[in-house]
Structures are given as structure tokens and as C-alpha cells.
């Protein structure tokens, strides 16, 4: 009876797990380097609420914060793959495809938990003190934007009629025109902005596998688009490069309100002073100096202090990033660094580095000044020693080979294998009696020693 109840409970949990609803989310921005192209590879994984919030963090760190939320009633990845073809005179997703190709940053998430979308607007309003503006279709051309404060524009697109393919294509094309018109208006006004395009719930449509595979490359090929190329920041000791540093997003937040995006200044326009950087065989300091960033921040210096030592336990040299310092208006914020180390011949890479405990490598505040700052660095890579051919060496990653999920699977498999082995061993120990009672003879007597 207990076994039956166990199987019934497992069946209920499996059914609930398979019934999780998810919708696609498309994000793009006029700000460069918000997301790395590798972030789009989310095949077979449903993005949770927490993961979506982490992916939206770069939007909040821009100096100019204007966000447009296009919200539809139903949407699925199959809609993009199936309706990417032209239907008569209608061209569904024509503007969306063009915008994704031309945007400085874009991100395509094929599956996001619907619960995360239902709470998205509340989360956005809690994250930044936005001025919320609901826009109707007829008001798009009359849009007025006050750039002195953060703005969020919510555009509820018309419902999708799914009576047949033609009506569905027309509805998508009409919404696509609204997206294109509003985007063009903002660009003509010279306003920096980011966009989220998603839906409240998924559309329940199933297409044949060959159609999906053939047309999938239409819109989703944007995932492999050519983005603005960034070159690693390098420091020379005369003729040779001695320090390399790169990141797809490098931003700071002071007192939860003042956002400073250093990505373009550091890696694109190179408006950073590296003269205070120091290189040697045992110590290296990467010093990034910025002037005239914002009102109240006259000068800003960020130091990455690295050492190269020989460790007898591993019988080799290792380099470590020991600490990070932020010097703002003569006040120094110091952080210890966790798990940023690699063999001296390697570079170090980590997807997320910063002050949050959710990141792969954490910056731990040492003094009170450090608690003022929030640091966010995505696709962090650094090398301070043994640089060959002016390129990053093989990267030692902060993510271990065995993730928690792999360890859980291994431990569970070992326990089940042990139970199976024990059961087989017990079965093999079973033996039959060597002597039997004869009902017509005397009773069988078995001594205690046998």
C-alpha cells in the first residue's frame, strides 16, 4: 500500500512539473554590451523569476533609464518560428527582426516562467522609482518623454485572434507595426531606451517538427548576431602587454540610487587612464581612473590587486586576485575577493562577479565605505602574469565541473546502486536445505553447530 502511495505522489509531482507554463521574452536596448550573446543559449531550460531578475540588472545600471514593456496576451516560441514567413501582404515580426539585428544589445529568452512575467511590472517598479505611463495604440504617435527621470512605458498590444493562420498573422503584423513605430519615435528623439517584449501566457499551438526546425533560424538566428566588438583592456610595461582585462558589462551603483556604467568608457571608447597600473613578476595592480563621470563623483579609481606565488602543495605558481579597491573623492572602499585564482599560466574567467551573494565570485566588503557600493561585472576575465602573444591564456573558470545538480544525481545513483548490490548479494546467499524430513521415517534432527 505504501508503495502504491509513493508512485501516486511521484506521478502527481511529475504532472505538475511538466505543466509549468512559460513564454518567450525578447529584450533589446540602445545601450551597448548589456548582455553577452552566450546568454541566449537557454535551450531546454525555463528561466525562473530570480534568473530573469538577474538578467534585467544591466538595464537598471544605465545613466539614461527609459524602459518600454510591450505586453501581449499570448505568445510562444512557435509563433516566431511559424509566422516568420510572409502571409499574403502581411509580414509578421518584420520590425522585431530588424530591430534585434540593429540593436546595440539584444537577448532572446525562449522560455521564461509565466509567474515571473505576472510579477514583472511590480518588480520593475520596486527596483527603480520609475514614472509609469500606460500607452494606448492611438497615443503612440503623441508620446512625450521627460528624460530628467526614469520612465517605464507599458504598451498593451491587441489580443491575438487565432481563428486561422491568416487572422493570426494579421494580428501579429499589427502589433509588430506598433512596436516599430514606437521604437522609431524614441530613436528620432535621440532617447536611450531598453525594450521588453513578452506575453502574459503561452499560446497553445503545436507545429510539425520539420516546420519548426526549418523556420527556427529566421528569428532565433538573431542569437548569433554580430554585436559591437569589444577588445580586452591591456596594460603594457614598455613593449609587452602585462595585464589583460575584459567584461561584457562593468557597472557600479552608489547608495542604491546613483548608477555608473563603465563598460563603454573602459572597453569601447577607452576613456580610462591606466598610468597608475603596475606590473612585476610577483605583483600586478590594474588601476582604472575615470574623471568627470557624474555630479558628485569628480574622480573614480578602481584597483585590482593581484599576486603571483609558488605553492608547495601543488608544486606550481598560482596567481590570485587578492582585493579590489574603489577610490571615490579620496574615500577608499576595500573588498576581499573569493575564489578568484588560477595557475600562473592561465587567465581567470567568471560569468558574474560582484557584491551580490548570487554571483559566481563575490566581492566581500572590508570597511564601511565598501558597503555603499554595489558592483556588477558580467563575463569577467583577467590575467596579470605570463601573457603570451598578447592574448588571454586558457581560462580557469569559477564554475566547478561538478554542479550541485550533478552531485545530487551522483549521490542518488550511488545510494540506489548500493541498495541494488546489497539486494543481489542477499539473493545470491539464499541456499536450499541439504536434508529433508521423511514423513515415514524418524524426525530429522539438526544440531546447533550446523
Comma- or semicolon-separated keywords:
450 residues; alpha+beta; Porin; 2 domains; 14-stranded mixed sheet; 6-stranded mixed sheet; 20 strands; Ac45_acc_su
Structure overview:
The protein has helices at 2-18, 49-60, 77-83, 94-102, 114-118, 120-127, 165-188, 209-219, 263-268, 404-428, and strands at residues 22-29, 66-74, 105-113, 131-135, 151-156, 194-201, 233-236, 241-246, 249-254, 258-261, 278-279, 283-294, 297-311, 316-328, 331-337, 341-343, 347-354, 361-365, 373-383, 395-397. It has 450 residues and is of the alpha+beta class. Strands 7, 8, 9, 10, 11, 12, 13, 14, 15, 16, 17, 18, 19 and 20 form a 14-stranded mixed sheet that branches. α3 packs across α8 (209-219) and α4 (94-102) packs parallel to α7 (165-188). The protein has 2 domains: 20-224, no CATH class; 233-397, Porin (Beta Barrel), CATH 2.40.160. A hairpin with a 2-residue loop joins β12 and β13. The model is unreliable at 10-19, 38-42, 206-218 and 220-229 (pLDDT under 50). It is built from 10 helices and 20 strands. Helix content is 28%, strand content 32%. The longest helix has 25 residues, at 404-428.
Amino acid at each position: 500500500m505504501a508503495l502504491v502511495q509513493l508512485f501516486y505522489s511521484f506521478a502527481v509531482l511529475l504532472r505538475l512539473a511538466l505543466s509549468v507554463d512559460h513564454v518567450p521574452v525578447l529584450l533589446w536596448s540602445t545601450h551597448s554590451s548589456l548582455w553577452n550573446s552566450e546568454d541566449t543559449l537557454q535551450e531546454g531550460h525555463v528561466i525562473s523569476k530570480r534568473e530573469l531578475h538577474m538578467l534585467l540588472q544591466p538595464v537598471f545600471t544605465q545613466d539614461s533609464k527609459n524602459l518600454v514593456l510591450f505586453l501581449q496576451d499570448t505568445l510562444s516560441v512557435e509563433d516566431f518560428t511559424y509566422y516568420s514567413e510572409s502571409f499574403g501582404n502581411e509580414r509578421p515580426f518584420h520590425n522585431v527582426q530588424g530591430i534585434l539585428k540593429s540593436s546595440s544589445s539584444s537577448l532572446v529568452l525562449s522560455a521564461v516562467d509565466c509567474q515571473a512575467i505576472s510579477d514583472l511590472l511590480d518588480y520593475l517598479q520596486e527596483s527603480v522609482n520609475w514614472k509609469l505611463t500606460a500607452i494606448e495604440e492611438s497615443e503612440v504617435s503623441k508620446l512625450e518623454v521627460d528624460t530628467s527621470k526614469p520612465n517605464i512605458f507599458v504598451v498593451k498590444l491587441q489580443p491575438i485572434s487565432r481563428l486561422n493562420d491568416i487572422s493570426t498573422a494579421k494580428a501579429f503584423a499589427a502589433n509588430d507595426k506598433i512596436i516599430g513605430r514606437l521604437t522609431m519615435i524614441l530613436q528620432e528623439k535621440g532617447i536611450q531606451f531598453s525594450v521588453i517584449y513578452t506575453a502574459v501566457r503561452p499560446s497553445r499551438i503545436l507545429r510539425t517538427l520539420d516546420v519548426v526546425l526549418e523556420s527556427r533560424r529566421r528569428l532565433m538566428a538573431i542569437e548569433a548576431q554580430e554585436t559591437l566588438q569589444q577588445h580586452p583592456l591591456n596594460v603594457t610595461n614598455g613593449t609587452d602587454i602585462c595585464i589583460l582585462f575584459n567584461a561584457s558589462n562593468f557597472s557600479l551603483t552608489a547608495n542604491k540610487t546613483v548608477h555608473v556604467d563603465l563598460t563603454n568608457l573602459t572597453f569601447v571608447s577607452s576613456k580610462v587612464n591606466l598610468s597608475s597600473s603596475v606590473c612585476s613578476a610577483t605583483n600586478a595592480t590594474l588601476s582604472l581612473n575615470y574623471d568627470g563621470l557624474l555630479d558628485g563623483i569628480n574622480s573614480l579609481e578602481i584597483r585590482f590587486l593581484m599576486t603571483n606565488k609558488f605553492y608547495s602543495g601543488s608544486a606550481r605558481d598560482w596567481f590570485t586576485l587578492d582585493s579590489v579597491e574603489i577610490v571615490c573623492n579620496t574615500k577608499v572602499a576595500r573588498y576581499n575577493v573569493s575564489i578568484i585564482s588560477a595557475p600562473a599560466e592561465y587567465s581567470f574567467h567568471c560569468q558574474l562577479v560582484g557584491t551580490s551573494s548570487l554571483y559566481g565570485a563575490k566581492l566581500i566588503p572590508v570597511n564601511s565605505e565598501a558597503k555603499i557600493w554595489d558592483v556588477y561585472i558580467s563575463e569577467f576575465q583577467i590575467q596579470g602574469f605570463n601573457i603570451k602573444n598578447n592574448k588571454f591564456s586558457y581560462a580557469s573558470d569559477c564554475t566547478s565541473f561538478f554542479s550541485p545538480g550533478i552531485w545530487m544525481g551522483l549521490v542518488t545513483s550511488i545510494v540506489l546502486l548500493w541498495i541494488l548490490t546489497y539486494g543481489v548479494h542477499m539473493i545470491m546467499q539464499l541456499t536450499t536445505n541439504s536434508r529433508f524430513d521423511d514423513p515415514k521415517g524418524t524426525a530429522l534432527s539438526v544440531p546447533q553447530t550446523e
